[in-house]
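Hi,

I'm pasting everything inline rather than attaching a file, because the server keeps stripping attachments. The sequence lines come first, and each chain or strand is labelled.
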Amino acid sequence: MADTLTPARGAGPSGGTAGDGGENADGTRPAGRAVPGTGSARGDAPTADDRATNFFRTVAGTRTSVASRLVTGVNRSLALVLLAGVWEVLPRTGAVDPVFVPPLSEVLLAWYDLLLDGRLAEHFQASLTRSFSGFGLAIVLAIPLGLAIGWYRPVADFLSPVLELFRNTSAVALLPVFILIFGLGETSKIVFVFYACAWPILLNTVSGVRTVEPLLVKSARSMGLGPVRLFQKVILPAAVPTVFTGIRLAGAYSILVLIFAEMVGAKAGLGYLIQDSQFSFRIPDMYAGIITISALGLLFNLLLLGVERRFSTWRTT
Amino acid sequence: MSAHGRAGRRGTGAGRGAVEQGASAVPGHGAPAARPAKIGIRDVGKTFRVRGSDRPFTAVDGIDLDVREGEFLTLVGPSGCGKSTLLDLVAGLTAPTRGEILIDGRAVDGPGLDRGIVFQQYALFPWRTALANIEFGLEAKAVPRKERRERARHYLDLVGLDGFGQRYPHELSGGMRQRVAIARSLAFDPDVLLMDEPFAALDAQTRESLQEELLRIWEKTGKTVVFITHGIDEAIYLGQRVAVMTSRPGRIKRVIDVAFDSREGDLRADPRFGEYRHHIWTLLRDEVAVAQEQERTIG
Ligand SMILES: Nc1ncnc2c1ncn2[C@@H]1O[C@H](COP(=O)(O)OP(=O)(O)O)[C@@H](O)[C@H]1O
Ligand SMILES: [Mg+2]
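And the predicted assembly:
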């Protein structure tokens, strides 16, 4: 059965089973309704991404007996321990070239050195600032816009051709444009992150507003609610879970696309650290950077899940 | 058969008489002598435009019905005959294409807190607790917060859900949800309660206990109730009068007065109950056949 965090109509909760492919599209599918003609060019990204999300959903959301929790816990850490072991052993036995894949212990030592000399903190902070700025901006702008599009037919009709065009334009393809317009500095990176984050939030918000149970609207109308109160008291709260699905997707994007931008042109940031380490052949540093990014993505997702859970205690199981 | 006799007086033919009577009462507005019916439905028709067809679709047509103040009226009819459509019209959620609907002699022009609706699917707000759901209509009525809470508690008690106020709808059983929905509609103190097959989704036992409680609440509060059902027994058990509708386009075929000498004991075992049941069943039989034929041909 679905766990407590199962979204009413968001991404699939079933822990990345084969069936998920279809449900995952939900993040993007509403777009089909928001703006006529689906055909998502981004179809693949959310799938892979959401699979990861689902995995952590299950980790955070399972509320079964203590015993079975323990078993799953051991199970999961066992896989991680195995991975770490393989990473340590294979380079040492020479099965893989230790120059390109150094043993995990060396990577961890390199990570510790980066931590001690303050460089890790510097890059980490640079990335986090850009990521949060773009992500925050996307939340602040895309949610109101999505609400307007979902609620006012004329706004939707007016904007949908443009939205449809941009939605199908990959953010990555637009990075050179952002750099041309905003330069190589912080602005272009933040705009880039903002652009990538805005879509899942916008599309999910639109769908959240559009898919409110008509009977609830009817019931509220029967109690004499006008359009404004109806929106405030029914549409908004009903849309919250779907909006959160978009926010979580955007959270993952914010880190993914930023790393890319930092690899293309930056003087600081985790993406820069990885790229620079590779160019100067500090391979352990490169892996240290990669591990840090994974950890960051994981933490961010858990944080958003926590917030989401606080806001949707009423969700049915 | 006494039921027949009474029904005859209130049949469709007699309905016309009621219209004239009602209509004459309207111009006087506050006329104290001939008090207007609580709900007056005057020659009401509703057509829908259907996509992909230029012929309008008539759901109900020429409906005449008066509901008296404080009366419990049940409405039965074949599926798809326009019962819900009629209720939406009385609720003011949609406007009639023909005729008019009067509440206390004044034409309905939109929804209002003088009428409360209870739907079959509860229509509770899932993000609100039971208490907060009951408060919903009170917020719309701008009742101060403290009084809202008190009133919500009162009605929660009234429907027997004391102690379940902090539960979310998904944490309640179907019967409990419907109790909350009833409490929500009662809380803003409407004169009229409109119920659209409210117990149809419940199991038999829950339904029976809710029927009894509804009667108890009705006697206590004196509301005017219009109750749609597809259960003949339910209609007879609850209603002081049972209005039988024809197949679509729905009209009122007959209105039957239901009277028992006493409501003590098992009403369903009363021989009169069987007579009423047979009578209504006979009235419905032909209509159901027509309705089923319609469904086959229209698809
Ligand atoms: N908004 C609508 N648009 C078009 N047809 C409708 C609409 N609402 C109801 N109908 C049609 O009107 C008829 C009566 O519906 P309804 O009142 O729900 O019947 P009942 O409640 O008696 O089963 C049905 O055939 C239904 O399909
Ligand atoms: Mg109906």
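Confidence is low (pLDDT under 50) at residues 1-62 of chain A.

If the labels don't parse on your end, tell me and I'll reformat.
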